[in-house]
Amino acid sequence: MSRGTTDVLMSKNGKRLLVAFFALFIAFLYLPTILLLIFSFNASTVIAFPISSLTTDFYEAAWQDDEIRKSLIASLEVAAGTAVVATLLAVIVSYALARRSVRFKSAVSALILLPLVVPTVVLGVSLLVLFRPNDPVIPVPLGLWAVLIGHVVIALPFCVLLLLPRIASIDKRLEEAAYDLGASGVTTFRRIILPLITPALIASLLVAFVISIDEVVIASFVVQDQATYPVYLYSGLRLGGRTSLLMPVATVMIVFSFVVILAAELIRRYGERRVGLAER
Amino acid sequence: MATEATAAAPAVPGEGGRRSRRVQDALATYGLTAPALALLLVFFLFPIYYIVRYSLGLEHFAVTEAAAEITGEFTQLTTQLWSEFLTVGVDVQILGKDNVSFHLPTWAIGIIFVALVVGAVAGRRLSERWGGWIQGGSIVLLLVPFMTIPAGNNLLRFAELSSGGDFLRLFFRSVTMATTSAIWAVIIAFPIAYFLAFGIKKSKYTWLLIVIAPFLTSYLLRIFAWKIILGDQGLINSALFELGLRDPDNPLSFLIYSQFTVILVLLYAWVPFIVLPIFIALESIDRRLLEAATDLGASRLKALAKVTLPIAAPGIIAAFLFVFIPSIGEYITPSLVGGNNGYMFGQAIASQFVGGALDWQTGSVLSVFLLGVVLFLTLATSKFLRQGGGATS
After folding, report:
1. What is the value of ipTM here, to two decimals?
2. How far is the C-alpha of B250 from the C-alpha of A199, rounded, in Å?
3. Which of A42, A57, A127, B324 has the smallest C-beta neighbourhood within 10 Å, fewest atoms?
4. pLDDT recorded at residue B15
5. Considering only CA atoms, which of B367, B37, B354 is closest in space to residue A131?
6. How far is A82 from chain B (nearest CA, A)?
7. Is there a contact between A261 and B216 if contact means CB atoms under 8 Å apart?
8. CATH number, position A105
């Protein structure tokens, strides 16, 4: 009996079948996006093959469009804010959870993770209730600040999930050595911990940014007159029309997010090599 | 700031110094957790507390009490909104040659549901001998009524839960659609994960990333892409017009704005993500177990059924839940591709707050109900979610 491992797991034909299924699956995953990309260059507004001629006119028109540009800027602002605030809060609370004897530690971490499971519709309407324009419970005006707050709440658990394990994995003796050599808490954090968690920190910023820039449910409940880009796109898709203008922006954003994913993966690999984990 | 280790070290002289150090330490710890906790308290727990208040008539949309009476809102503690929502009861229909249907009160459905979830999660602990049967039976009873085969305009299924109450009926429709897309997502994701774990030798993590990458791109844009394909003027329909298979005035309309589309798009959105927990569960299997099984004469299929699937089961269940739980409250997908036929519970909630209906008290009842169902499911299945979630983080 000298059958190899693969032999036990799948037969020759079984493997062929799986390869075919896998190929179909990849096509299923990527085809819609690729079609979006192709039709963003379509000169005609009718979406059909064969495409008679290609143009970048719609890219230019989208770039010139005031509403699109304003909503994109609003989204970038909110996403940048979310990334910074959520990561900052996450670093601080992760450090406390990893290094200090926090009372009710499991309750605190459960609370931080809770927004992960609460339906975003419920989060959205409850924030709307909190900021209600007539007699607000908390006097934050509806608008981009309100969106930012909602996004920080939903991004925080992801940031903590990225940062907490990394901080907990740092050898305690490194910090103790720093203290013994007379470094203050702040210095130790800046000189010892910060450099070691840089990859996780970047990942956390990226993830929070991506979550915010794509978030539409909460934003749609608490935006006022200036929509974020997802809210603008959402209402555009709902009402129809303007499809030709929306496709170029959609294409740019998808390409952009693939670049970000690639960058994040490269940083992750780099980080793993640095802490000495074998590259897989 | 000092760690516990240095605080306890003999270098600190005297009892007093140590105590002040400890106080300082405690203060620093509270200082470090306070910002995040304050944020969650004010902007997460507090708003949820408020929708609970609305659902009980303790708050109203109108500014003054007099105005609230005119708009017909409640102005004091009441459970009437809840009973209006829940007392209508549930119609259970078993579909087949002869449709059998019976009516149950909502609480009975609730008890059956909770019992089945408990059976599915903890069945094995209930009885040594029948545990496996209880567990399997509960899972089958939970899934089979909702297991739908989308066949164009028609959705084929074994049973249907419905209700005379509009909102309750919508809720069951959402559960059906969420279950269907979750089951199909798992059915598709399993062979993919199996292939990635066992079929690829070189750079399997790169392939894994290729599979997962679409999940990390904009959700809205992926729905957009499907609208281009499935829309009335979309790719499929215009190809059909071109080929003369369909009249331009009469496009295949179930392709967009139907339950089928919502299920397809939800499945498409989640399937890349849930390959991950299944892949990790499969990777953790000790291959010698499989070799032992085949050496002892088991066929590959039998080894799959008796060794691989049971070991991977927690990952598979986690994968199911990762799709199912967020899909019950879906709002964006059905409002973009659902139409009337695919209208879901999440949309009903939204329309009570910002849409035409505008009844914050009823909307809050629906929100709190959805929140309760989701929290119950999450807590009951946290064992699996943690396993799957730990694997994915």
Report:
1. 0.87
2. 55
3. A57
4. 53
5. B354
6. 13
7. yes
8. 1.10.3720.10
